[in-house]
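Known limitations

Structure tokens in this collection are predictions and should be treated as such. Users comparing against experimental data should check residue numbering before alignment. To illustrate the layout, the record for 4-hydroxybenzoate 3-monooxygenase is reproduced below. The input appears on top and the generated tokens appear beneath it.
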Amino acid sequence: MADAAAADVDTVTSVPVVIVGAGPAGLMLAHRLGRAGIEAIALDTRTRHEIETTQRAGILEAGVARDLVETGVSDRVLRDGHEHQGVELRFAGRPHRIDFQGLVGASTWLYPQTDVFIDLADARKRDGGTVHFGISGTEVLDITTAAPRVRYTAPDGTRHEIRARYVVGADGSRSMCRGLVPEDRRVRYTKEYPFAWFGILAEAPMSAPELIYAHSAHGFALISQRSTTVQRMYFQCDPQESVDAWSDERIWETLQARVAGEDGFRLEEGPIFEKTVLPFRSFVQQPMRWGSMVLAGDAAHTVPPTGARGLNLALHDVKVLAEVLIRTLGSEGDSALDDYQPRALQRVWRAQNFSYWITQLLHTAPGAEPFDLQRQLGELDNVVGTRAGRTYLAEQYTGWPTGTGD
Ligand code: PHB
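Generated tokens:
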């Protein structure tokens, strides 16, 4: 496919859509477009192995789990995932269950992001989709024209060019693509937090049937799961914390103190085989479209992990984007793409609000005064002790309908 006009690359390929980033958002977009007969090539600087072995969040909205099955990605989520019909909020040493099913008729699925990725990567392979992992030297060119191009170097050192009608930047929270929107034409909304999460994976039995979000005078903790024998837990820490300062014993002591209560609840302990400090922030860049480039998922927005919104939000973006791109590349033309941003952004800002709200509700800010702690307990009591409060939490945590103002 070598071409005289591009003598400095080894091959030139043309497809309607090229996707920079082959995480869940990029691959799900490629899958959805593929089902409509639109070819998309996805590229990622990481190897498939790197993506598969990086721990990420674990909660899917029921609608996202259903989409994986109904769009033909895989039905593995129904076999290996676990439906959770509620969560526990623990504060002042007492447990309070929020019954999603009873309150809003919805549930969530515990199914790790790494499994979502594996299912999508397998589906791309099965369906003959092209994904290049482990690439480098990505250049995105001519996005203000109707003929954008992406150049990259393959793992074998050869250089390639993909010509497309649209480029999608689904390249995650450290997105290169979003930097291509000129500085004077973009707005970046950012909120930093004075705490991070310390995440662990432990070989231990489950401590509870559902997730536990714990507020305590010592700070926040989240008890999640991966399987009957591997558990995922987090506790609030300083963003500068070093994992080397944390022995297994100190970690268990910290976690136990944050969930301790008058009911005598204790976590099941076991050997810890992964420890990571995870800083987070709230971030949105607008616009989500610049010329022939569109941003999706973490490239355009990130949320604190507390509300379990990040992956769900990214997959919502690409659901809307796939639908809009299919119309755009069909009979409607370029102006149809303008529908993407308003529909995606409505959910983005709802999720930003919820993620911020539940983060400040459950974490202890450094230097918090006794008043702050008591006020938080008052707010938590309002959440669990009123039907409106419980319903609000259930509705926000389980997700919103797609593209409606309801
Ligand atoms: C996880 O299981 O990793 C997880 C669950 C819920 C959250 C964040 C992370 O809010």
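For this record: The two ends are 50 Å apart (CA to CA). The chain has a mean pLDDT of 96. Please report discrepancies through the issue tracker.
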